[in-house]
Amino acid sequence: MRVAIAGAGAVGRSIAGELLENGHEVLLVDKAPTAISVERVPRAEWLLADACEITSLDEAALQRCNVVIAATGDDKVNLVVSLLAKTEYGVPRVVARVNNPKNEWLFNESWGVDVAVSTPRLMSALVEEAVSVGDLVRLLRFSHGDANLVELTLPPESALAGTQVGDVAWPEDTSLVAIIRGTRVLTPTREDSLEAGDELLFVAAQAREEQLEDLLSVRRQNTTG
């Protein structure tokens, strides 16, 4: 897979290193000569150019890329790069970094963004995820379909503890994609049982999040009497 990354700062270089380790082809683009540090990511291609300019993107052969990542520290630049990548070059997957959470609403399909990653929001979510049991935590927003990656740690009092995945009437437009149980990551099957303390990862429509949280957090009804 060929990936172009606009922005060769610490974030862009870190992403490039991970992708190269996974066997992908990576091009780093930055207009600042001081950012061109070939020795830091020697296996990547490097291009000194302004990623907001069509001529630069032509030189980068963006039409050959499977993914473009707009990872600069400037939200305006990231939006322009995303829009050009999607509309001018038809890049299938565009991922954009959101630096200021107040700008997050702009990072959607209208600007060519498939996935928006807000570092401040993600850090906040990870803190919430570490201390929250029974509360839905939004980890990542996907622009297409208004869907989010959300997490909930199943509380001991949940009515679903001990229930098989296939027996749960999940809300529409939600999908359980992983169960994290201790050090294990499980791909859910209908026969898997949910256990108290499981970290459940869902892709869910935003409109269904409250319904999903209510379903997972509901206490067992006292049937004795």
From TrEMBL:
GO terms for cellular component: plasma membrane. One of its GO terms (molecular function) is potassium ion transmembrane transporter activity. Residues 1-117 form the RCK N-terminal domain. Residues 137-218 form the RCK C-terminal domain. It comes from the Bacteria. It comes from Streptomyces aurantiacus. Gene3D superfamilies: NAD(P)-binding Rossmann-like Domain, Regulator of K+ conductance, C-terminal domain. The keyword NAD applies. InterPro entries: K_uptake_TrkA, NAD(P)-bd_dom_sf, RCK_C, RCK_C_sf, RCK_N, Trk_Ktr_HKT_K-transport. The keyword NAD applies. It holds the Pfam family TrkA_C. PROSITE patterns: RCK_C, RCK_N. SUPFAM superfamilies: NAD(P)-binding Rossmann-fold domains, TrkA C-terminal domain-like. This is Trk system potassium uptake protein TrkA. Keywords: Ion transport, NAD, Potassium, Potassium transport, Transport.
